[in-house]
Amino acid sequence: MAVNRRRLTVGAAATAVVLGVIAVGIGTANAGTRAPWWGGKPHRTTTTAAATAAASATPSASTASATPSVTPGVTPTSATPGASTTSTAATPATTTAATTASATATGAWTAPPANAGVDYQIGGAYTLPSGVTVVSRDREAKPASGAYDICYVNAFQAQPGEESWWKKNHADLLLTDGDGELVVDEDWDELMLDVSTAAKRTALTAIVGAWIDGCADDGFDAVEFDNLDSYTRSGGLLTQAEAVAYATALNARAHAAGLAAGQKNLAELTGASATGAGFDFAVAEECADWDECDAYTASYGNRVIVIEYSESGFTKACKAYGDKLSIVLRDVDVSTPGSDSYVYEAC
Fold it and tell me: 267: which of 202, 291, 292, 296 is 20 to 30 A away, CA to CA?
């Protein structure tokens, strides 16, 4: 399943305070909360009925224990990894730089090309529009042949339809408040995962790691972990440092599988704090609309994928970054061609 996302951001003054800092949180979780620009709840979409059924059934029962496992769960449908998983990677930098080799003991990866034709298909896969060479798709979907493929993973919250699986198999990894009640992200109506301790982060990394391995097996080139910013909606129960520690473990797992790792939103996390966590590029929603694109380019140079959902934001992005960044205009449903809401436009 896939959903369109919006992220919370704090004001410019708070941004200045947290740049380069991962040891502390950002203060109150509701600071600078922004309502969705279209004035309502996000519209949720699924890839296919089969994908919906699969999402509620995975990860497999072999990951039912919260005890970390070296080989957790049955991963999603496997395929021979693409040749791209054996290439080199762009080293995170604060300025645009030539791609240089990056590797772990078990894998090597390549960051997405800069200023490429891009599409955001997390609401359903379809034939790539002309000129598109980079695409993000849900982990339940197959990568696009001949493109640089990014695997979308909801790593910080329970994906809709999977709540019962989490409650049955990993109730202790769901965030609860002081009264023992499950904490729901009211913006997206999703249960939050508890990343507050090292033990829980290790257990979660084992579970999500199976999904990461599945992305690699299917032939994806990279992964983006959604809801990195969910700690800002946790009512102070989670901190930025805890979220980044968890992301760092996920990024290491991605690199070991031969996948580049993308920072999804959270413009407040920049510079050494971002690249030190192991992120190789950014996927930024509405960064032009909110004047945040420079925060991402400060960390990743031109390795920033921009998704805008308004004509004004798209025009602004193309004017300022059209010859530098990968930019696309999509509808808020991230729907497929044939849908009344479908929008796709490139600079």
Answer: 202
User: Residue 41, CB half-sphere, CA atoms under 13 Å: how many?
Assistant: 9
- Helix, strand, coil percentages in the chain from 3-state DSSP, rounded to 5: 30, 15, 55
Where b means 16+ CB within 10 Å and e means fewer, 263-272 reads bbbbbbbbee
Residue 106's alpha-carbon distances to 178, 223, 254, 257, in angstroms, are 41, 17, 11, 7
Segment (H or E) for 311 = helix 311-321
Judge whether 233 and 241 are in contact, CB under 8 Å. Answer: no
What SS3 class is residue 143?
coil
Q: Mind listing the pLDDT tens digit for each residue in 218-268?
A: 999 999 999 999 999 999 999 999 999 999 999 999 999 999 999 999 999
Number of separate helices (H) and strands (E) present in the chain: 8, 13
Q: What is the DSSP letter of 26?
A: -
pTM, full prediction: 0.73
